[in-house]
């Protein structure tokens, strides 16, 4: 018998709406269910993690998860939660995005575990040969316009206008559920709370067209305690692709969570048991300044998305940023990680010929680089023991050599605890 999937979601705060009878149906036998992901980019972001974790819990309960990648619906566009129609994508772009999304989902779901192994499906496979006339004859006749107009995702757009393409989206998504019900035995669709209307259109189509029973569960949309949007930073979305968001930035995103948000995040985004979470919360409340909850979340999710080596680098980078590092730590960083950590730091470039075999620290600070206003200021700071090279204090007679170059190209100069400069040697 499967474990109680709905009970697991409830204590984690992951249930917003649930169709009557869902929990009872899932507790009777191993079942199949799915969640859809529109491949509008070549990477998922942290906003998708709630749905990914929902599928993870579904599989852990003993059920069979399907991840639907919308190769067809990505060409249409979902109006749910949108204020305007989004750009449509061409087939080559969509195919590339689908392949990338699949690779990321494989980090979370077990695609090789036997009877309840996860499966990836692409709705382009069943829509590509379906004509418009076939669709309106076999699907459209079962759902009335009045029913479609009653959906919040449609009503919210009536004043500003929406295309027929977007209006028809709920029929397309409803047919996905019907197809997977008929061909894969799916009786459950999950999604965010903004998807409720589209999901119940699918259950209605299954009931009217196929005469079967199907169920729906939606999760709450994540909102931060301060009212700002979850998953966004000043730099934009927090992506799962390390080329778009470095593991260091990814780790820092979770580490910088507020205490109020962390109480929710550790339940939603980790697989830790309730007893373990409650113990961590108790420990955190006794010493909030240690950020025990934030560190537990950041480490758990960073390992899952990027692996243990990336976590070690992220922690090392964090230590460097906050002064707990050595010159060797700095030299172990990739150039990308180095400049991610010291983003926005003042830079100056000198030629390799000017640098020569050695270069005076005074000249590096106040000469052509111009980090400090004069040689006199540079010497005063050096005498005050305020200057560091690659996080290690140096004196007035110090000479920079190739041994000090990070990646044979740059040097991190510091003044006091908070001011940094980067000297680039080219």
Please tag this protein with its features.
426 residues; alpha/beta; Rossmann fold; Tyrosyl-Transfer RNA Synthetase; Structural Genomics Hypothetical 15.5 Kd Protein In mrcA-pckA Intergenic Region, Chain A; 3 domains; six-stranded mixed sheet; five-stranded mixed sheet; 21 helices; elongated
Written description of the protein model:
The chain has helices at residues 5-11, 22-28, 49-60, 91-105, 124-127, 132-138, 145-149, 152-155, 164-167, 169-184, 196-210, 247-255, 259-268, 274-286, 292-306, 308-321, 327-331, 335-341, 352-355, 361-366, 375-383, and strands at residues 17-18, 32-37, 64-69, 119-122, 186-192, 215-219, 232-233, 236-237, 346-350, 359-360, 387-389, 392-393, 399-400, 410-415, 419-425. With 426 residues, the chain is α/β, with parallel strands linked by helices. The chain has three domains: 5-219, 3-Layer(aba) Sandwich (Rossmann fold); 232-324, Tyrosyl-Transfer RNA Synthetase (Orthogonal Bundle); 343-425, Structural Genomics Hypothetical 15.5 Kd Protein In mrcA-pckA Intergenic Region, Chain A, CATH 3.10.290.10. The strands form four sheets. Strands 1-6-5-2-3-4 form a six-stranded mixed β-sheet, sandwiched between helices. It has a five-stranded mixed β-sheet with strand order 9-15-14-11-12. Strands 7-8 form a two-stranded antiparallel ribbon. Helix 10 (169-184) packs across helix 11.
């Amino acid at each position: 018998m499967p474990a109680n999937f709905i009970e697991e979601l409830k204590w984690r705060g992951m249930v917003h709406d649930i169709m009557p009878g869902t929990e009872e149906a899932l507790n009777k036998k191993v079942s199949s269910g799915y969640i859809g992901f529109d491949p509008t980019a070549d990477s998922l972001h942290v906003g998708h993690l709630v749905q990914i974790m929902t599928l993870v819990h579904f599989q852990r309960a003993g059920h069979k998860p399907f991840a639907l990648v919308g190769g067809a619906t990505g060409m249409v566009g979902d109006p749910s939660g949108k204020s305007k129609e989004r750009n449509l994508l061409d087939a080559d772009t969509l195919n590339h995005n689908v392949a990338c999304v699949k690779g990321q989902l494989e980090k979370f779901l077990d695609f090789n575990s036997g009877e309840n192994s996860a499966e990836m499906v692409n709705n382009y496979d069943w829509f590509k040969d379906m004509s418009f006339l076939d669709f309106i004859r076999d699907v459209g006749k079962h759902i009335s316009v009045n029913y479609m107009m009653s959906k919040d995702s449609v009503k919210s757009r009536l004043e500003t206008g929406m295309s027929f393409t977007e209006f028809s989206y709920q029929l397309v998504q409803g047919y996905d559920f019907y197809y997977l019900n008929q061909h894969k035995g799916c009786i459950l669709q999950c999604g965010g709370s903004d998807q409720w209307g589209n999901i119940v259109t699918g259950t209605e189509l299954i009931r009217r067209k196929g005469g079967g029973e199907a169920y729906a569960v939606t999760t709450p949309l994540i909102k931060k305690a301060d009212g700002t949007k979850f998953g966004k930073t000043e730099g934009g979305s927090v992506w799962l692709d390390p080329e778009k968001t470095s593991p260091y930035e990814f780790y820092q995103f979770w580490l910088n969570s507020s205490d109020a948000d962390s109480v929710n995040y550790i339940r939603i985004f980790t697989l830790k048991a309730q007893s373990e979470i409650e113990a961590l919360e108790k420990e955190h409340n006794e010493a909030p300044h240690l950020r025990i909850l934030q560190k537990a979340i950041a480490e758990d999710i960073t390992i899952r998305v990027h692996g243990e080596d990336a976590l070690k680098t992220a922690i090392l980078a964090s230590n460097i940023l906050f002064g707990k590092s050595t010159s060797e730590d700095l030299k172990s960083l990739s150039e990308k990680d180095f400049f991610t950590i010291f983003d926005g730091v003042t830079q100056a470039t000198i030629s390799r010929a000017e640098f020569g075999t050695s270069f005076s620290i005074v000249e590096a600070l106040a000469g052509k680089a111009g980090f400090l206003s004069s040689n006199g200021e540079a010497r005063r700071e050096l005498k005050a023991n305020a200057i560091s090279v690659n996080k290690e204090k140096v004196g007035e007679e110090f000479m920079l050599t190739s041994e000090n170059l990070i990646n044979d190209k740059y040097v991190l100069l510091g003044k006091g605890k908070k001011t940094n400069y980067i000297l680039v040697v080219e």
